[in-house]
Amino acid sequence: MGAYILRRLLLVIPTLLGVMIVNFALVQFVPGGPIEQIIAQQQGEGNVFESFDGSGSEVSATDVGSGNDTYQGARGLPPEYIAELEEEFGFDKPPLERFLNMMWNYIRFDFGESYFRSASVIDLVIEKLPVSITLGLWSTVIAYLVSIPLGIRKAVRDGSRFDTWTSGLIIVAYAIPGFLFAILLLVLFAGGSYWQIFPLRGLTSDNWDQLSLWGKIVDYLWHITLPVLASTISAFATLTLLTKNSFLDEIKKQYVITARAKGLSEHRVLYGHVFRNAMLIVIAGFPAVFIGVFFGGSLIIETLFSLDGLGRMGFQAAVQRDYPIVFGSLFVFGLIGLVVGIISDLMYVLVDPRIDFEKREG
């Protein structure tokens, strides 16, 4: 097992490097870099993208970091000022040199400072991380608490009317986009057009510091109800059907027939024998499910509910071309995703020692 883990850890390096190379290369062809953002603000245009109206008379973005000193939106600004901006952002160097410098810093977990927020990237990530973890963790826990009992009941009553109509509901829930369900919740329960039951934005109320401990807990749960529901809706289908199919596979095996023949109760058979075997794949997949919810739904949900988390910060950084945040977040998320993949494999071994990845590879 040690050799397998070592191989997987070594594979993290070229995989992460490939991800960074592809994204860095693509950025070189994206119009409207940070220098043009500053130029647009200096000339009172607010945002460089506001002038992409198809007329060709305003700012025409150049490739970021391409080495071209001509910025068509910079007419009237001294060339020395443009040169200072390029030197400040590092765009006076060739792209290859900038990439190598960036990766060397990232290896040492030095992600630099944001171009527009006057704060280090690592401090911003730490500040926004609790919001995204809140959404991801609560959504994953609720999905497991609902999907496992429901999947077991569907397996026990396979083919019944209960199994049929619950499958229909699960498929419909899976087909509904998360952002559309979030908008529906806002309209219905956050004062959009009907009831003002839940708050529209934020994780806490303005008077949070004045509340008692119990009041803080209630206020926190009150605020996260709608965002968690919106980010959880699509996670039920996969987990429920996975649980059901795992139970069905185990129920048909010989040891279950033998247990029933010995006179054991159905509850003892299901939860004393079938459960621990059927749940191996479901429990072992917890880290991967959490990361999927954490990465997949954070952007849209955080934006719609005005939650100041990593997803919203990454979106704003991409719009502003705040590259330290964009690439720093990409590096951290990529590294986390790859490490979680290894942790998922270790979870399989922990819950079922019979699994041996080294023999399977051989």
Write a concise synopsis of the structure shown.
This protein has helices at residues 2-27, 34-42, 79-89, 95-107, 121-156, 161-175, 178-189, 213-232, 235-251, 254-261, 266-278, 280-284, 286-296, 298-304, 310-320, 323-351, 357-361.
Q: SSE layout and pairings?
A:
Elements: H1 2-27, H2 34-42, H3 79-89, H4 95-107, H5 121-156, H6 161-175, H7 178-189, H8 213-232, H9 235-251, H10 254-261, H11 266-278, H12 280-284, H13 286-296, H14 298-304, H15 310-320, H16 323-351, H17 357-361
Helix pairs in contact: 1-16, 5-8, 5-9, 5-13, 6-9, 7-8, 9-11, 13-16, 14-15, 15-16
- Give the overall pLDDT as a whole number: 76
Low-confidence stretches: 48-69
**Structural class, from helix and strand content?**
mainly alpha
- Percentage of helical residues? 55-70%
Please identify, by name, the CATH architecture of the largest domain.
Orthogonal Bundle
Order of helices and strands: HHHHHHHHHHHHHHHHH
Please provide the count of β strands. 0
The domain tally reads 2
InterPro entries: MetI-like, MetI-like_sf
Subcellular location: Cell inner membrane; Cell membrane
Protein name: Inner membrane ABC transporter permease protein YejB
Keywords: Cell inner membrane, Cell membrane, Membrane, Transmembrane, Transmembrane helix, Transport
